[in-house]
Fold this sequence. Notes:
Elements: E1 3-12, H1 20-26, E2 40-48, E3 54-62, H2 72-76, E4 81-86, H3 89-106, E5 112-118, H4 127-136, E6 140-145, H5 150-165
Parallel strand pairs: 1-3, 1-4, 4-5, 5-6
Antiparallel strand pairs: 2-3
Amino acid sequence: MQSFKLKIIFINTGFSENNAVVQGLIGCHFENNYRLNLGVNVFVKNIETKSGEVVTMAFWDVCSKPSFKFFLSSLYKGAMGIFGLINDNRSYEIVRKQVNDIRITTKMEVPYVLVLIENESTANLDLVQIEEQVEREGGILIKISEADDCKVNDAVLELARRIIDSNIYIPSA
């Protein structure tokens, strides 16, 4: 049985760790305590693919506060995937900028998943434009309600599969 270790940048644009989607993703509690010397929280999710491969995904919850922007590119290095949460125009623009920055920093078309958490704020989004842009870039867009986290695991599995099947993943010796 083959195993994989993947570094994923998690772009959380302000959702609480108590949000059902975030809980479904991380499956545990971690503190939003960004220390000035690091600016990142890491949580690990182990999954098993349908073919029996074990995938350890380290999600780096990168703080997007202005005081940490000067060293974000250092945190992006080695990223093999991106997982972002959006629910309004502001969160979409933040995630879009970080996806672009990560791809520039890594010099690769890093696969990504955007989870659109539908609520009253999503009414102002141009969903057709977002869907077209995500599809053009080879990303995955998943629309879910705030209480629905079952699609999140499917998205995580699909992201892992795309990374493993791409030329991004380099097995460690």
